[in-house]
Amino acid sequence: MKKQIIGGLLAVSMVASMGTMSVAAAEKDNADIKIGFSSKDNSDTFVAAIADAAEARAKELGVELLMYDAGGDVNKQISDCETLLAAGVDALVVIPQSVEGSAPVVGMANDAGVPIIVDNGDIGDTNYTAFVGCTDQESGELLGKWFIEESGLKEGDKVAIIEGPMGQSGQVGRMAGFEEVGLLDYFDVVATQTANWKRDEAMALAEDWITTYGEDLKAIICENDDMGMGALSAAQAAGRDDIIIGGVDGLEDAVQAVKDGTYGVSVLQDSAGQGATGVDVAVAAAKGEEIAKDTRIPFRPITKDNVDAYLEGGVEAISGDAAETKEEAAEETTEGETEEKAAEEEAAE
After folding, report:
1. Residue 96: which of 75, 112, 119, 127 has the closest Cα?
2. How far is CA 251 from CA 108, 147, 219, 226, 246, in A?
3. What's the gap between Cα 126 and its chain centre?
4. In which band, very low, low, confident or very high, does the pLDDT at 13 lie, cut at 50, 70 and 90?
5. Do 81 and 107 meet the contact criterion of CB atoms below 8 Å apart?
6. Which residue range or ranges hold the Periplasmic binding protein domain (predicted)?
7. Rounded CA gap, 285 and 22, in Å?
8. Cα separation of 72 and 196, whole Å?
């Protein structure tokens, strides 16, 4: 099984030409293709962005997309998928509500002979046609490393962690990432609790922790930006601008808060890339074309050091060669200015 690892929206143009398997299907025109899309919870800002990107890509390609929102209910997601399969979709895209709870939809699609593309989050049954998304543990590792190495916190400082819904891929993977980089041992973790990806629940949790732990609480580490922004609101309301807060997703207001200096880090996962590429792969599968079994879109930390580049040039400006080229150009400019200044001083002497 080959993995394809790509950056940002490059996925959209690359996935169809770098496949490693093909799905038996009759030749179809785009106008004849019907894609089912089961989203886990579009009240989540990031998930909604994936869904929006999927709908935009389907419109661009001229295919029909049937969008169903499970609203955070795994039983509804299973029912939604049954409905979509009964409607005769040519491929099914699923953002799993639960790693194990959503697993039955894979068998349902296989039994119906419909290609199933798992988008954004892991699922317990890996007999799907293809996966498109990020590796959740990677985001936990990047977030954890930033708090350990770049936040200015000291070993043994008291921190709290706000998690996503227990058992979801993001919660499981990001906590595994924290463990992998030693975050749970490096800091004194005084509290860990879920806020279900919700901003208001995270704000209430943070308010309680700020009251309970007072000045000893140095940071709140959040598994997504919606919860991070809720924690930030609580800290600001309490006059605790010293509490360091960071999260995952690259939400617009979180990125702006990084620029403003009130939010430490937002680990970007490319919602547009995941939504659009999921539809691309589904369409290719419906046509019987070669597709990649596993397409991974890397996470990118947005910090005070690269936030301006991101706001100016988007994800490609902080990804791979583009980011390195920009850094090299900055270094060359600095070196050139230094040499020019030295020459001027020498001439003056």
Report:
1. 119
2. 34, 19, 20, 8, 12
3. 20
4. very low
5. no
6. 35-290
7. 7
8. 9
pLDDT digits (tens, 9 = 90+) for 227-247: 999 999 999 999 999 999 999
Residue 219: strand, helix, or coil? strand
Q: What is the CA radius of gyration of the chain?
A: 22
Q: Does the pLDDT value for residue 278 go beyond 50?
A: yes
The SS3 call for residue 69 is: strand
Distances (CA, A) of 334 to 197, 305, 309, 337: 43, 16, 17, 5
Between 45-61 and 225-237, two packed helices, what is the crossing angle to 10 degrees? 140
Band of residue 324 on the pLDDT scale cut at 50, 70, 90: very low
Backbone φ and ψ of 61, nearest 5°: -80, -15
Biggest CA pair distance of the chain:
85
What residues are paired with 189 via a beta bridge?
159
Q: Which residues contact 249 (CB under 8 A, 6 or more apart)?
A: 45, 46, 224, 225, 226, 266, 267, 268, 269, 271
Tell me how many degrees the CA angle 296-298-302 measures, rounded to the nearest 5. 160
pLDDT at 342: 52
Stretch 188-203: mean pLDDT, rounded? Answer: 97
